[in-house]
Amino acid sequence: MDPQIRIVARAERDRLGEGPVWVPERERLFWVDIEAPALRWLDLASGAVGTRPFSEPLGWIIPRAGRRDFIVGLKSGFAVFDLEADRLTPIGDPEPEYPDNRLNDAKVDVAGRIWAGSMHEAETAVSGALHRLDPDLTWRRMDGAYGVANGPTFSLDGRILYHSDSAARTVYALDLAGDGTLSGKRAFLRFPDAWGWPDGMTTDAEGCLWIAHWGGARISRLDPEGRLMRAIALPAPNITSCAFAGAGLNRLFVTSASRGAEHVPAAGALFELDVGVRGLPPRAFGG
């Protein structure tokens, strides 16, 4: 294995690891195993890992500004989660008309709003959408229809939202106005078959995108024009998402899935990569 890559030591592998997020106030990287289902975390100072089981699929976790609790995306919808009190409080279901859907991947924009995708859990219907959760805890459907709505991230100035339909092998770019409206949807990048499918994404401090390849055993760095700058092979086929962490935002953590690759020893591992660039400070939800 490339010396710039290491596997975080822990006893388990993730069935469907996703949604890594650095929470500097806690000095922890959090991520989810959607299908365990469980919340995971890594203490960067000590290397200690922890887990908290959930009773339904957990798509993502996002911290709240100035608070100790989180917003989480579940099969049943948005909820508030207090880790210390071990308390889950529902906010609401953005898709009551699609009981077979679940929330899947989310990020926070410069205004403190959550952008969250959804998908049909069995991946047999094109019923996914892109939702916006505002700081007043109201939500609005912003775009659809997606096979698997995935991987939101933003341009360096926050004026472009990048979002994938993994099922269509396409990353879209949408213009994001200050009031949270979207316009100008266009294809930013179409994955060739050999690349697999686009999954989770993040943006580095130079404005480049890092994209995880489901079925492609790698992550890629692309410039703001969509040109491939770098590809890093990983010893697991289904790479799911990535996030920069640590005090210097120079440690890139990458999640993966063991689903469909149980025979691969590193499938479902959490990887740490030294890629020589820094990420952007993480954003917390404004509500």
Protein described:
- It is a single chain.
- 0% of the residues lie in helices and 51% in strands.
- The protein has strands spanning 5-7, 17-23, 28-33, 38-43, 49-53, 58-63, 70-74, 77-82, 87-92, 101-108, 114-120, 128-133, 139-146, 149-154, 160-165, 170-176, 182-190, 197-203, 209-214, 218-222, 228-233, 239-245, 251-256, 271-273.
- The chain starts with a strand and ends in a 14-residue tail after the last strand.
- The mean pLDDT is 97.
Short overview:
This protein is mainly beta and 287 residues long.
The main sheet orders its strands as 1-24-23-22
Put simply, the count of helices is 0
Q: Oligomeric state of the chains?
A: single chain
Question: DSSP strand (E) fraction?
Answer: over 45%
Rounded to an integer, what's the Rg over CA atoms?
Answer: 17 Å
Report the biggest beta sheet as strand number plus sense, adding barrel if it closes. 4 strands, antiparallel
Beta-strand segment tally: 24
- Please state the structural category: mainly beta
- Average pLDDT, to the nearest integer? 97
